[in-house]
Design brief:
This protein has 124 residues and is α+β, with helices and mostly antiparallel strands. The protein has four helices and four strands, in the order H-H-E-E-E-H-E-H. The chain folds into two domains: 1-59, no CATH class; 65-119, no CATH class. A four-stranded mixed sheet has the order 3-1-2-4. The radius of gyration is 26 Å and the shape is elongated.
Length: 124
Amino acid sequence: MPALSPQIAPYSRSGHPVPSSATLRLCVNDSSLSRLDLLRFLERAQEREVERQRGIRTRPPTPEWLIELGLNRHAAPVYVHVGECWNAGKRSRGISRDQARRAPADGVKACPQCQPDRALGMLD
């Protein structure tokens, strides 16, 4: 097995490098690693997966409608988007359906890609 530096892989109490996910396949047949080291690695991998799944479950839902704000806080909003629009910028925030319906009356354009005016039933 190639030597791993302490910066890449931590060492166990027995002095052996603890395998990372990339080196697990190399380490399974290596007799220098104890079974305890491999079990600790497996436990950490399972904890990471549980934490990842928890993050997915607790992620807030995607808003149904977005408004893309201007370049500064005094500028008018630029576009109204459907929540899943690929063209929504980083300055977008979620809004309610009523706010999305009122936005064109306030002079905010509908996104030409996702066409929220059609989804809202407001054809020109």
